[in-house]
């Protein structure tokens, strides 16, 4: 836990089950030996979970922006990006898509083609090379609590280590404090730039399991569905086999990307289970 004066200390939740997420603002009760107990958690402006059919887990609180890192190689999952965008829309967060490894110039056009449908939807795209110009990302982090998300191999660690030189050291210190190296891969870490800007590195968000989303909020989280919502014949249309479904009609006309519609269907089928 970081205090207002910038110092940090080790803090533990009161109960056994931790309800605290990275990014939370808390009231601490100091115990004198440099440690503390978490008394209460301040109201959150946003909350990201990961979930599967069995359980959901808090990942990050009070985030204002998701930075989704993809690379020109290896290939990335457009479905995962769609899921990330849905999670962001549902929590009303900003999104920045970062295309990394643009130094591999001959691979850039293919990656841009994959990203074109997302850019058409209005999501901002930043092209950079974590090896050559990681600094290009820094201005986009100003004034935001960002969470950095990406599949393995996209260059997330390279980016963080370039922007935050103490990041490598911090990970080691936290593992030592918890007396176990195995925590390094599962817990989220918050790196502060200034009073208004910080970055959360959260390995757990990679898969974007969204089983926890309320069924009714999913269709609204697809920005391309919004112009057509309310135009279906049935008010409670599930956009599956109902007659006169405006969403399916839009897919058939090509106004909604068919792959996005398929992601919608799978999210809807899984929704509300945890
Ligand atoms: N050419 C090029 N290679 C890069 C760039 N950024 C990262 N890489 C390489 O891509 C590989 C993966 O980078 P990492 O930073 O370890 O990727 P990661 O996303 O943190 O992956 P995990 O550690 O598995 O989560 C490494 O071999 C990096 O050197 C870049 O901008 N250009
Ligand atoms: Zn419909």
Topology:
Blueprint: E1 10-13, E2 26-30, E3 35-41, E4 47-51, E5 56-61, E6 65-71, H1 78-90, E7 94-100, H2 108-120, E8 125-127, H3 130-133, H4 138-141, E9 145-150, H5 156-163, H6 167-177, E10 189-194, E11 197-201, H7 215-221, H8 246-253, H9 258-270
Parallel strand pairs: 1-3, 6-7, 6-9, 7-8, 9-11
Antiparallel strand pairs: 2-3, 4-5, 10-11
Helix pairs in contact: 1-7
Bound molecules: guanosine-5'-triphosphate (GTP) and zinc ion.
Zinc ion binds next to α8.
Concise overview:
Helices cover 30% and strands 22% of the residues. The protein is α/β, with parallel strands linked by helices and 274 residues long.
What features would you describe in this structure?
InterPro entries: G_CP_dom, P-loop_NTPase, Ribosome_biogen_GTPase_RsgA, RsgA_GTPase_dom. One of its GO terms (molecular function) is metal ion binding. Its cofactor is Zn(2+). It comes from Rhodocyclus tenuis. It is found in: Cytoplasm. This protein is of the alpha/beta class and 274 residues long. The protein has three domains: 10-41, no CATH class; 47-207, P-loop containing nucleotide triphosphate hydrolases (Rossmann fold, 3-Layer(aba) Sandwich); 215-270, Ribonucleotide Reductase Protein R1, domain 1, CATH 1.10.40.50. It contains nine helices and eleven strands. The protein has helices spanning 78-90, 108-120, 130-133, 138-141, 156-163, 167-177, 215-221, 246-253, 258-270, and strands spanning 10-13, 26-30, 35-41, 47-51, 56-61, 65-71, 94-100, 125-127, 145-150, 189-194, 197-201. It has a six-stranded mixed β-sheet, covered by helices on one side. Strands 1-3-2 form a three-stranded mixed β-sheet, with no helix packed on it. A hairpin with a 2-residue loop joins β10 (189-194) and β11 (197-201). α1 crosses α7. The longest helix is centred in the N-terminal third of the chain and has 13 residues, at 78-90. The two termini are 29 Å apart. 30% of the residues are buried. Zinc ion (ZN) binds at residues 232, 237, 239, 242, 245-247.
